[in-house]
Design brief:
The chain is α/β, with parallel strands linked by helices and 259 residues long. The protein contains twelve helices and five strands. The longest helix is centred in the N-terminal third of the chain and has 28 residues. It starts with a helix and ends in an 11-residue tail after the last helix. The chain binds adenosine-5'-diphosphate and magnesium ion. Magnesium ion binds next to α6 and β3.
């Protein structure tokens, strides 16, 4: 049976929310005693462990709350496979200073060129810096906005979106939006203007965005805000998926006109 001081200590450490202290103090005390380490150094080691654990738990929570469809890092991204993409810019963005400056990122290019992978990698980098990230497809976001409007909780959804330092909106352009959908998405983007970063990926060049939003006026106003402080990632090239499956099947790669 544990003696009262041990029980009381466990109780205090729980109340103080120091789970690593609670888990490690005994083992570390024995280790420090055998090494002849003094009390201050013992406490320092314990505090360091708690801090490291706390950071790890925070990053894990950020990743969970971001609701990424998959966790992918830029480490597994083959920059050599896509010549049009500015690698230096991507690595600079991975430092996340643009998020602190509330600037936006737009990744443009055809399907399969790694836009979602890069968006996930930048999202993960932001989580690792402890920033609140939200990942959603444009279609899902519009669906959520429409639903929230119908249920008269649009303001609550806007507040939730405002909680993200970085909002990643994937696949803008795959589905044309209804006029209400377009207006709601425009409002969501407008509310973030200079208040929080947005990272958008799209298969459509800017001059075709009107086909998504329907109205030229709305598209113009949206692009005006979105591109005021923006980093553009040009991702033109062949589909990585297609190339990979051709490699797997031993087929020659489709020759490109590039260079
Ligand atoms: P997009 O969003 O542009 O359609 P994805 O990011 O979904 O493309 O990429 C398709 C698949 O190919 C994903 O599994 C992705 O991880 C992989 N992929 C694409 N480009 C690269 C790359 N340059 N290096 C490594 N994997 C890549
Ligand atoms: Mg994609």
């Amino acid at each position: 049976m544990s003696d009262p001081p041990q029980l009381l200590l466990a109780h205090y450490l729980k109340a103080l929310k120091l789970p690593t202290f609670l888990r490690e103090h005994d083992k570390l005390a024995r280790q420090c005693a055998s090494e002849g380490v003094d009390h201050t150094a013992y406490l320092l080691r314990l505090a360091e462990l708690e801090l490291l654990d706390r950071e790890r738990r925070m990053v894990e929570r950020r990743i969970r709350e971001a609701r990424f469809p998959a966790v992918k890092s830029l480490d597994s991204f083959d920059f050599a496979a896509i010549a049009s993409l500015n690698k230096m810019l991507v690595l600079e963005l991975a430092r996340c200073e643009y998020v602190e400056r509330r600037e936006n990122v737009i990744a443009l290019g055809p399907s399969g060129t790694g836009k979602t992978h890069v968006a996930l990698g930048l999202g993960l980098a932001a989580c690792q810096k402890g920033l609140a990230v939200g990942f959603v497809t444009a279609a899902a976001l519009v669906h959520e906005l429409l639903e929230a409007r119908d249920e008269r909780r649009l303001l609550r959804l806007h507040k939730q979106l405002a909680g993200y330092k970085l909002l990643i909106v994937d696949e803008l352009g795959y589905v044309p939006l209804s006029s209400t959908g377009a207006e709601l998405l425009f409002e969501a983007f407008s509310r973030r203007y200079e208040r929080g970063s947005i990272l958008v990926t799209s298969n459509l060049p800017f001059d075709e965005w009107t086909s998504v939003f329907g109205s030229e006026r709305l598209t113009g106003a949206l692009l005006d805000r979105l591109t005021h402080h923006v980093h553009i990632l040009e991702m033109n090239g062949e589909s990585y998926r297609l190339k990979a499956s051709q490699r797997r099947q031993g087929k020659p790669e489709i020759p490109t006109n590039a260079n």
